[in-house]
Amino acid sequence: MSERITLGGGCFWCLEAVFKDLKGVERVESGYAGGQVRNPGYREVCEGTTGHAEVVDVSFDPLVIELTDLLVIFFTLHDPTTLNRQGHDTGTQYRSIILYRDETQRATADRVRKDIEARRLWPDPIVTTIEPLETFYKAEETHQDYYARNSNQPYCQAVIAPKVAKLRKEFYERLKA
Known about the structure:
By secondary structure, this protein is of the alpha+beta class. The chain has helices spanning 12-19, 42-47, 67-77, 103-119, 146-150, 154-170; strands spanning 3-9, 25-33, 53-60, 85-86, 89-90, 96-100, 129-132, 136-138. The chain has a 6-stranded mixed β-sheet, with helices on one face.
């Protein structure tokens, strides 16, 4: 039986490209969550006026990849120490956030965050928030499978490709064939 977790760590194109490559991940959808406006669009979210974060909704088989493993990868492949920022992308829409669906997910996210802090994977304190998911809004179709369709674009080459390369190097055993 599949589980779902919703994660934000900067541009959703980056996280989608990374999570799609993992064994046990069945579906990744880019979208918006954590804000106040119903059915937001990309332009509204990018303006930072809706309160939403760019997120990915990840469906996975916990018998193949556990939530703990997904969260370790999440914390490794984006900088969870920068408030409302990932690289040149700035604003609350790029915040680091874990949106859980139940108490078990909340407890797991809290435990993994504390473990990553204790291991000092990052030199600065982690600012990732852990919040209940209220509503996930799927992003427009042009934002789905973005990296796969646009991998030669300069943004994809400069920002997404290094994250995909880091995934392939550090989590090789977790990749789909």
